[in-house]
Amino acid sequence: MHIGICRLVAHLPNAGNLKAKRQVARSLTQRIRNQFNVAVAEIEDNDLWQRLTLGICCVSNDSAHAHQMLSRVIDFVDDFREDVVLLDQEMEIIPGV
Fold it and tell me: What pTM does this model have?
């Protein structure tokens, strides 16, 4: 069993308050869950209006498959909306757990 972990940091330039940020975050996390069947949650920067940090995790029997799934999620977030600008990404595959 291999575990894939990804941390994404995005800038939300049009979010003028926490309510606007939560709306984008809720929409994005729900779409990621539905389309890729991975675990996703907002993990940092909870009180910053224009910064969204997501943690994403998947489990697979092949490390290449886990890497491919997380890469597809990153591409999806990058293309999600024009008002979501991907700033940073980190990915780690934990093999043979």
Answer: 0.85
